[in-house]
Amino acid sequence: xxHLLTPGPAALAQHMIRMRLALMRNxxxxxxASNLYTGVSLGLILALATIAVAVLWPAYxxxxxxVWLSGWIFGPIFIGGGSEALRPEYxxxxxxxxxxxxxxxxxxxxxxxxxAVNLIALLSLPVYGWRFGPAGVLxxxxxxxxxxxxMVMISRVIxxxxxxxxRSRATAAAVGIVTGxxxxxxxxxxxxxxxxxxxxxxxxxxxLVRVLPSGWGVAAVEAPWPLALAILVxxxxxxxxxxxxxxxxxxxxxxxxxxGGVPPRRGTPRPFPTTSGARIVAxxxxxxWWRDLVRIQFLAxxxxxxxxxxxxxxxxxxxxMVPFTGLIxxxxxxxxxxxLYGADGTxxxxxxxxxxxxxxxxxxxxxxxxxxxxxxxxxLSLAGTVVSGQTWAWPWVLGLLPALLxxxxxxxxxxxxxxxxxxxxxxxxxxxxxxxxxxxxxxxGLAWLVLVAVPATALPAAGVILLHPLAGIAVGxxxxxxxxxxxxxxxxxxxxxxxxxxxxxMKHGPAPEADKPTTADLPIQHRIGVTIxxxxxxxxxxxxxxxxxxxKIFGVEGPVWFLALHLPPIWQWPTxxxxxxxxxxxxxxxxxxxxxxxxxxxxxxx
Length: 606
Hints:
The chain is built from 25 helices and no strands. It is an all-alpha fold and about 600 residues long. The radius of gyration is 26 Å and the shape is globular.
């Protein structure tokens, strides 16, 4: 293979592009094809919307392009360090310089749908340049190409930095804090902007979005042509510097020791406690939570999101979310722990080879998760309620806290054995320690399921609190204990009966089922509709439906960002009802359409 890839930079890049296209072509089966088609469709819609912004609202074009840049920056962080189809480790033995390998990998990075969609969005620059004549169009075209290359290079450098420098608990936690803060800003970042307000802030933000790399194209279009050429040349120089930095990072990553956790201490290792059963499993799991960089990052993401989200709303003097900081942390920590067994890889064989160890394994994992998440969640809940001064929230915090802790500890082990997503063994994760090697789409879907299932376990306590606060606290304790016991019992019974199947799934992946219909077998319009419904159905159901309904019931003042509360009182309840019904209908469509496909396929077969 080496003699094929070493003739020259052009041939090397050509081979990388062909390999990337072959990998993508061979993976377009089943749900992967459906997800790709849906993602491309949504991307094209957003790209056309960006061009529409350049035509109708040109003043907001730099801000819109900054959103695209943020996607390239935070997207790899959200999916665990980025999805790398062509890893640099694959080409470490080739007789080529790091610069040539980096340039070829960069060419392969453009052989995909994401850069093509982004290029369509960047055609908004020549559209915007039409206002400045033919020279503006030409400069806009050149700026579109350089901006695209810059965005992709920034993304690749960030992925390389993550893979190289996240080698300790502190750096893994830092990445998690950045991730949680970015998610919080995406959902409630409008709050500090609204709190600042004013024309000075607007002028400052207009300068900022042009200083970012995504705004250099707009600045070049608006500038006189000598300055525009200078901006384009400077952009090309930045691309060269990024390429050189990426080549250096890749070479260090290839020669550095790849590990997915913290190395053991030198000297005599700490012995495990002289115990057995669930407690020894809990001790092992606590060490895993303390040493595995992926778990550390996930926990930091959950708690940083839970802390930053209420603080953003405090900037507009909305303290309603502060007492529930710990509750948010519990739900997010459960969502990031959804693939608890899949993250351990094939280590399950140790449990299966020990007679009767399944029950102890499940109970030990539950205990370790409670000891890891529970104390911090309790402190955040009590401190948030005291600091906020929201005395009405005490029954809700004291009732929902044990219910959610129990629900989280029960749901994660149950889904861990029922909906396991195969991942790479921790010692085989490669040069990117924050990537589990699992299917990011499947893991994301599992996390969304936990985000719905864990709050559902607290609904009985919430209903009783409305009637009698003290009884609601008792019900919260009871439902939490029942969730731990009941879900855990189902989980270890499942592990006893299907443990070999789970181990085979983790080792070899899911077995192909030729006759089983999937979402990819739906017509293209239904495929797109199902995915869109899963992506956005939570918006009308939770933020625009259930949240304002709760605020109306408890008499909380302030419309915040809820549409219904901005309307006249006579229209508020109808709007809330419509939003809840819309969200339920979207979820119903997303669930029932594939079920209808499966039932019709079964009828045809019989």
